[in-house]
Amino acid sequence: MGNSIGKLFKLTTFGESHGLALGGIIDGCPSNIKIDLDFVQSELDRRKPGQSKIVTQRKESDEVKFLSGIFEGKTTGTSIGFIIENENQKSNDYDHLKDTFRPSHADFTYDQKYGNRDYRGGGRTSARETVNWVVAGAIAKQIIPEIKINAYVSSVGELEIDKPYQEVDFNLIESNPVRCPDVEMAAKMEDYITKIKKDGDTVGGIITCVIQNVPIGLGEPIFDKLHAQLGKAMLSINAVKGFEFGGGFSSTKMKGSEHNDLFNEDGTTKTNLSGGIQGGISNGMDIYFRVAFKPVATLLQKQDVLTNDGKIIEQQGKGRHDPCVVPRAVPIVEALAAMVLVDFTLMDKVYRNY
Amino acid sequence: MGNSIGKLFKLTTFGESHGLALGGIIDGCPSNIKIDLDFVQSELDRRKPGQSKIVTQRKESDEVKFLSGIFEGKTTGTSIGFIIENENQKSNDYDHLKDTFRPSHADFTYDQKYGNRDYRGGGRTSARETVNWVVAGAIAKQIIPEIKINAYVSSVGELEIDKPYQEVDFNLIESNPVRCPDVEMAAKMEDYITKIKKDGDTVGGIITCVIQNVPIGLGEPIFDKLHAQLGKAMLSINAVKGFEFGGGFSSTKMKGSEHNDLFNEDGTTKTNLSGGIQGGISNGMDIYFRVAFKPVATLLQKQDVLTNDGKIIEQQGKGRHDPCVVPRAVPIVEALAAMVLVDFTLMDKVYRNY
Amino acid sequence: MGNSIGKLFKLTTFGESHGLALGGIIDGCPSNIKIDLDFVQSELDRRKPGQSKIVTQRKESDEVKFLSGIFEGKTTGTSIGFIIENENQKSNDYDHLKDTFRPSHADFTYDQKYGNRDYRGGGRTSARETVNWVVAGAIAKQIIPEIKINAYVSSVGELEIDKPYQEVDFNLIESNPVRCPDVEMAAKMEDYITKIKKDGDTVGGIITCVIQNVPIGLGEPIFDKLHAQLGKAMLSINAVKGFEFGGGFSSTKMKGSEHNDLFNEDGTTKTNLSGGIQGGISNGMDIYFRVAFKPVATLLQKQDVLTNDGKIIEQQGKGRHDPCVVPRAVPIVEALAAMVLVDFTLMDKVYRNY
Amino acid sequence: MGNSIGKLFKLTTFGESHGLALGGIIDGCPSNIKIDLDFVQSELDRRKPGQSKIVTQRKESDEVKFLSGIFEGKTTGTSIGFIIENENQKSNDYDHLKDTFRPSHADFTYDQKYGNRDYRGGGRTSARETVNWVVAGAIAKQIIPEIKINAYVSSVGELEIDKPYQEVDFNLIESNPVRCPDVEMAAKMEDYITKIKKDGDTVGGIITCVIQNVPIGLGEPIFDKLHAQLGKAMLSINAVKGFEFGGGFSSTKMKGSEHNDLFNEDGTTKTNLSGGIQGGISNGMDIYFRVAFKPVATLLQKQDVLTNDGKIIEQQGKGRHDPCVVPRAVPIVEALAAMVLVDFTLMDKVYRNY
To answer: Which InterPro entries match (chains A, B, C, D) (predicted)?
Structure first.
């Protein structure tokens, strides 16, 4: 279970990194939406391996094939099926994993839970799954074109941008392989990742996401609050360890008299420590949040692993992996955010001021 | 929509702070569970207003009345209905809110979304709703008595415990009104909250939660990962702005070679930066996470508010409110964690190594 | 599990016939709906025991108490909690059932499944549960006042009206205790039920339901077809054994050239063997269906029952029961139909020609 | 919405009859189930067009391709993706339908609801969708091999078997193209269908389904009763107009003293008018139900149709269609029944006598 996200705009996915294909079904996409297929592909290309020297050199064309639900360029209101075929599998690279469990990987937990696993390339636990999310996110973005979603890398290891998002030029995000809109910092991050990669090591980082031009009213309290669904979506991404929105953890140190966002007469607020959400419902101000990624567990170093029969052995990491996932995770964060926003946009059509 | 949490152990709730009663229905509670009603009440008492000088002095007996689903002391497998009657409503205290929107409250967003709201005491947005969660959590805890859940206050404003949870004595949590297991720090926090209260101000804080003795295998990837559901549940609590588990945000600064949790031969790990969860599934190690609470928005000071007709006026905050919510939120965090764990425990009965 | 119906207009219920109360929560009711509470009570009165000589003589005031979600006469968009207290329980009447299983009752299956049951008055299996449905149905009707729902008794045992619904005067439905709009036939049915009752026996019957003024477009294929959800709802009523809509079982004997509903130029059809639904979506014509009720299993005769320890003994039926449920089931059929229609009306706001 | 069936064993589908492929995702299939792929294909072959002279002569190989979730012959507990490519599309056959609505088809309602439709071959409304159900049903059957599901044609038009299922030899079902186990009647039905086909007309019929060796306890009251879910599933099949189980509509004419199923000492019953289900839960006796199919709407005759711009014109039906769907619907009925039974089997693992 658990292979679906969303209630009205619902994505269900399948696929292992070394199976024939990954894919998904979008149920609940409204009809009559013009779909720009090139845009979908361009979003996939942003996530694709092999884009730059600092990401995995695996070669995948990652071409999505839509099988239903789009007719003469528009959605029909029926379910949208799609697949992305796997091409560049080097399954032999993973033979050494058949009987071993890597530290901080899901190998062990899947094996214990299911008693059975496709060990090749991580199987279902591989972040290759996120290719499905990017497809659905690219459809979602086309349903709510007025809402602007920009994610970017705000830290890699200890290196971080120390200015608020309001001072960031989103146009610079795609100007460098790190997807950090501070060009100087981006260069430092790139150097650092290159160095980490040479060591066969990995490093974590933080992605900041900003959502602008959001209508007032998205979110369904009590248990489907807008920020709670965004948080859950982000925590679904491989390697994510934390989520905060608005003031986040730093709010805990503040007094109410400092933290409260005083109103302007038009209902906007002078500050926005709330992060654009009050009581689980968007208030029309910018939504912003930060997503914490741990370093990737797969090292291209020697490391102690656990064997099926309960021994610890040393094993050399192999395969093609990212030294730092945050650059490639930027479009993934955006895709999930877009899906959540569409879901609540559809829900709001039902309940808004009936 | 959105008034339900859980898939197999499912709580649906209702209630406004100044209505006749709050309550809920638990659907999916297994049969033949012996229910200790005194325990349920004792959990409610931990959440109750008026327990100490540093919390709101509202008086509510908060007695839960079970209406169905429990027969001769045991659950019957049918839905469990319960109500908690409201007693100490001083609705007149809220007349001034009828036509105004307080900063950083949900007044404005509810009004915009629904075009209609029960303004008395915050209505549905009041944290009084959490009384329902504590009831369901107290039932949940009795389904999984082997799993130990301990939450505690780890920071209030700038004051924080700087030792890991492993060095904390959980027996001291209830020894002081702050629910901080470091007794010296607890005294400082209490003084600080008392001072803040005198100023009519409020302050934020952090709750740490530790879950021990968890079986391997709880969690349903891809989109119902154990930590993602915990995160979503915690982000549902009023005033929560962030969630992190295991290494959390500090993991982002680490290298993989530092962060990876090496195995012991028995499948346990030497470190636990993963926080007891790999790939969304519990690995048998302790689960631990931190929840960030902003300062309560309601101040007993003068503050600018927005009126219905778009003017900014100064208004004196009234009513009985907590200067710092984290002490009373401790049982709420535990209750939600218990519900999430039961939900996955039931799910695991279906899918575990079939 | 299973105590909820609906996806956007969702009712979750609880309650045993001899517990303190029954009740429910409606999640997803739109805001700003004016609620006529007297109408809700009048619908409950139609379902109430003791209305006439041919129904059970149990005395229950069946007063609904709304606890939340309605403020100053209008819905607020938050969840609506309600309870109906039990009053006239004669639990001792059921002591003989503690250790026995009645034929064609759910005693045996509940006991086997849950290993535990509230045997008093049938517990959760009692049709007293339907009081919750009538409350929710009465709210639902007020959301879609333009849609007209009329159910009536079309057969009792072998006695049946042999004219199509188009020739029936719905104004006569409430003119007699059987709720059969053919007054002459109603008198025969009443006599027959009276006779059956004297014998301590029971009898089945059929309810026909007609829904008029339905907008085109309600229903969500593939698996949430309008007629499939209506069918499922009706099959949820105690004692129901069958459901057919439009031509129903008689369609099976027809040729396509006879059965097809030819169009008029305005999109209406000349005949309506389709029963107002094409491909699972309403086509704007009248929806009509028939619901088959078996005779009530509880007889006030001697009957062989099974004991807990596997013996067959003779037992005299006791308690206050209906000799024929169809008259009291009429408002229940309508209530479920109203809930299904509202659910699809809300869904259609999302997906209709976006 | 509405493209999913099941709660724990959940099938979500996509596909139009003239798109690239149909397919689905099974979420919630337990791990470690050995899957016989030849059996899956053999079930598809039972549903396939072109099997005999009395069904549509369209040629489709209907080969299923599994893309995930099965590894080394066993399920892994992850989602199972599959596709069936379309091959024998003659889309030009449907050009005449672009601007017209056929009587008793979903053309009109889809167009009104979605404002957009793939008119080729019925698009999403085509019964070709059921190919997905047969795949999922064939997986489901392998999870519960002990439960025996047999469906057969019991009537075609006025021709019907007049003996109870207990007297039927299920081994004869596949002995003839009609799938009627009464060989003499089967011959008559075949002749009749052949004649109807020559006339370019169609005819309805009834399928009876018998489920044997069902464990006690399947079904989740109140709103997920076993028979209600079976009913809903059957009502999802194209052309179905009615569903009855156990005594069905004939129960309405009976007295309780005739209808009640008296117990044997072992908990079985002497009669089984209940149809193996009490209170929505299986009681261990045979489950049996009947499904009513109307005649197919597409005639290969001239017929009046409605045009997009509101005119009635005469149109000659074209394409390759079944004169009577019941023979090919037999494996579809079984597939849906298998899915429903697996869903409740998994649910029962959670709740059965905890």
So the answer is: Chorismate_synth, Chorismate_synth_AroC_sf, Chorismate_synthase_CS
Q: Centre a 10 Å sphere on the Cβ of residue B20 and count the other Cβ atoms it contains.
A: 17
User: Does residue A123 contact residue A105 with C-beta atoms inside 8 Å?
Assistant: no
Q: Do B104 and A261 touch (CB under 8 A)?
A: yes
Q: Given CB atoms, is D83 within the 8 Å cutoff of chain C?
A: no
Q: Are B20 and C82 in contact (CB under 8 A)?
A: no
Determine contact: B31 vs chain D, CB below 8 A. yes
Yes or no, beta carbons of C354 and A33 under 8 Å apart: yes
| 3-state SS assignment for residue A138 | helix
Residue B4's H or E segment, with its range, is strand B4-5
To which H or E segment does residue A42 belong? helix A37-47
* pLDDT score for A90: 66
C13-62 pLDDT, tens digit each: 999 999 999 999 999 999 999 999 999 999 999 998 888 888 887 778 89
- pLDDT per residue over B138-173, tens digit each? 999 999 999 999 999 999 999 999 899 999 999 999
Residues of chain A with confidence (pLDDT) below 70: 88-93
C-chain CB neighbours of D246 within 8 Å are 241, 294
**Is B296 assigned to a binding site?**
yes
ipTM surpassing 0.95: yes
Confirm if C349 and C144 have CB atoms less than 8 A apart. Answer: no
DSSP one-letter code for A286: P
Does the beta-carbon distance from C257 to D223 stay under 8 Å?
Answer: no
B295 among the known binding-site residues? yes
* Predicted local distance difference test score (pLDDT) of residue B53: 85
CA-to-CA dists, residue D226 to A216, A251, D207, D284, D347, angstroms? 43, 50, 19, 12, 12
Which of D8, D14, D117 is nearest residue A81 as measured by Cβ atoms? D14
> Helices H, strands E: what count in chain B?
7, 17
Integer Cα distance of A295 and A300 in angstroms: 13
Looking at residue D353, its pLDDT comes to 75
Residue B298 is assigned to a ligand binding site:
yes
Q: Average pLDDT in the D170-195 region?
A: 97
Work out the pLDDT band at B58, boundaries 50, 70, 90: confident
Interface test with C, best of A142, A223, A351 (most C CBs within 10 A): A351
Confidence of residue C93 (pLDDT cuts 50, 70, 90): low
* CB A156 within 8 Å of CB A324: yes
Does A285 contact B at CB distance below 8 Å? no
Q: What is the pLDDT of residue A351?
A: 86
> With 0-12 CB in 10 A as exposed, 13-18 as middle and 19+ as buried, what is B257?
middle
| D141 CA: distance to closest CA in chain A (Å) | 19
What percent of chain C stands above pLDDT 70?
A: 98
**Which of C33, C221, C350 comes nearest A354 by C-beta?**
C33
Domains in chain A (CATH in brackets) are: 4-351 (3.60.150.10)
Listed in order, strand segments (DSSP E) in chain D are: 4-5, 10-14, 21-27, 64-66, 70-71, 74-75, 80-85, 100-101, 148-156, 159-160, 205-212, 240-245, 277-278, 281-282, 287-293, 302-307, 312-316
D121 CB-near residues (< 8 Å, 6+ apart)? D16, D17, D18, D89, D91, D93, D94, D128, D319
Is C239 annotated to bind a ligand? Reply is yes
Work out the number of other CB atoms within 10 angstroms of the CB of residue B253: 22
Going by pLDDT thresholds of 50, 70 and 90, the confidence category of residue D61 is confident
> What is d(CA A67, CA A85) in angstroms, rounded to the nearest whole number?
13
> Residue C176: left (phi > 0), alpha (psi -120 to 50), or beta?
beta
Cβ of A49: how many Cβ atoms within 10 Å?
Answer: 18
- Across the interface, do D32 and A2 touch by the CB < 8 Å criterion? no
